[in-house]
């Protein structure tokens, strides 16, 4: 679903050391068949793992060219598959320019318009990381170009940052067990069944992995923990006296070895020629079922509902989250 020029970071593992102090916002790609060492800062310990990855594809991004832009009546300029690549000469290309009113109101999470400031692209710009997970991207007439090609729209749409908008998706899993605590195996595959924490998004009503945007200056490790706490445990609404056990359980899980499932560009309907989504998806597994599994789930922030869901191909999920879960199931030799 993506251009072959990009690189996927599907494999690898990271040990993320999380500290929960205070609790202050996804996507369709396929991976290349190779083993990638995990990338992280000095807040984690590394080890190497490998899994069978999704087959690579030369097809261009799809959701990034959806005819009608989300939460608007704006129609994109139609872009056929053979004209997505920037290297294809196309003088007739006349993309629609659109930046959502909510972004133009200059919230704290959004950049100003180009011309009123001079961002440092392909670099860490103050507290904002403008580097791309796919490597360096081109900048033309002062504006960054989507590394996966034309989308039929310029501007930022609903995205706050020019260029890459970084997100983090924590995939929290456990084994499905019976009353005695024994793993339940699927009758068809005979493999044990994994369950993961899934939220129902308020914006589109689809089930998804909890996750959201990396705040300026925030380590991705903290984003993973924060987003899970806010969306799956409703931590923002808890009294201080109620946060103690949650802090302990989350620390127990997020101090464990986390498997980096994916790091790279995401084919998101919010993408434009000048702004796009990138994410890091990490699996944290509650092997014994005694950390987060013991906490009552409660939807919060951007989540309308939350529940433990069996990991299975038949369960429809937002964007490419099903691809993430397939790789988790493969890594843990579970049913898919």
Terminal Cα separation, in Å? 21 Å
Q: Output the number of helix runs.
A: 4
- What is the residue-mean pLDDT, rounded to a whole number? 81
What is the gyration radius calculated from CA atoms? 20 Å
Low-confidence stretches: 1-58
The biggest beta sheet is recorded as: 9 strands, mixed
User: Order of helices and strands, N to C?
Assistant: EEEHEEEEEEEEEHHEEEH
Strand content: 15-25%
What structural category arises from helix and sheet content? alpha+beta
Global morphology: globular
Kindly state the number of beta strands. Answer: 15
The helix content is 10-25%
Give a written overview of the molecule.
The chain is α+β, with helices and mostly antiparallel strands. Helices cover 12% and strands 24% of the residues. It has helices spanning 101-104, 220-232, 243-254, 321-331, and strands at 13-16, 44-47, 96-99, 124-125, 128-129, 139-140, 143-144, 153-157, 163-175, 194-201, 207-208, 212-213, 257-266, 275-286, 303-310. The strands form four sheets. Strands 1, 2, 9, 10, 11, 12, 13, 14 and 15 form a nine-stranded mixed sheet that branches. The radius of gyration is 20 Å and the shape is globular.
